[in-house]
Amino acid sequence: MARRMPLHEKIAGDLRHRIEGRELQAGDLLPSEADLCTEYSVSRSTVRQALAALEASGLVRKAQGRGSVVASHPELHRDLARTGLSLHLGEENTQVSTEVLEYDLAMAPDSVPFFGGTEALRLVRRRSSNGEPFAVIRTWLPRDFAKLITRDSLVDASLHERFASILGRAVAGGRRQVRAVGATAQLGALLETQEGTPLLLLEGESVDREGSILESFQTWHRGDLVAFDVDNPPSALPTVPWLGERAGVRPDGVMGGIDALEGAVSSIETGLAAVQDALQALRRNV
């Protein structure tokens, strides 16, 4: 017979999902005890049990005079505009380590861009923060790289730094793609999380300044420990020269863009009026 979940566990579980799903974020105030009592039709003691469980797990904390708030937690931030696993650490005492789990020459599967069907150097590495795994990286490289980039040289090191310092070929760019996937049993074991846990998969290829391929990679990140940052700087609205000239304006910034649009509308209206006059004249002649 299945065990019936106690009410305080259900309430704690619901709030945990809301926190992990970012509906409630660090610093946000949780619903009051009275509101939770009403929402779940339970006693205040049951609600307090649920909040105590969340507090014990570090998800919430008591705020003097406010109630329970979502606690902040260490998070690693990866800047997608940079190459390599460049992480901005949220805490000063965070230590990142890199293990080399596999290093061998193998036939790359056809699904691997550039290397499919050929022998290549295959790397599998694991990155951890203060001993807690947060990323697994699988990389395929040209087989000749094995002569220069050794297994030991990659322990607690950056592969891209090795490209530059050992090969003299710095990463200049390449394709990047991000998608959400569920952890397989193997990835779950490596990342110390459950099978099916959401992971952020970053995959792509890196090239040097001449456009020659350096690597094809897949990196699985724990979604509860790593966030991807995308910088989107402000820019002026695009201008359409012929519209600006016909409207007699010089678009400059936002107001200039609005003037250009007004000029475009006026120009289109004028053109439509001319077309209508031509059609009327054609009807009269017919």
Structure commentary:
It is a single chain. The protein is of the alpha+beta class and 286 residues long. Helices cover 31% and strands 28% of the residues. The chain has three domains: 7-70, Arc Repressor Mutant, subunit A (Orthogonal Bundle); 76-229, Chorismate lyase (3-Layer(aba) Sandwich), CATH 3.40.1410; 241-285. The chain is built from seven helices and eleven strands. Helix 2 (33-40) crosses helix 3 and helix 6 (241-247) packs across helix 7. The radius of gyration is 29 Å and the shape is extended. The chain has helices spanning 7-20, 33-40, 44-56, 159-167, 185-190, 241-247, 253-285, and strands at residues 60-63, 67-70, 76-79, 87-89, 96-107, 119-129, 132-142, 176-182, 198-207, 213-222, 226-229. The strands form three sheets. It has a six-stranded antiparallel sheet with strand order 5-6-7-10-9-8, with no helix packed on it.
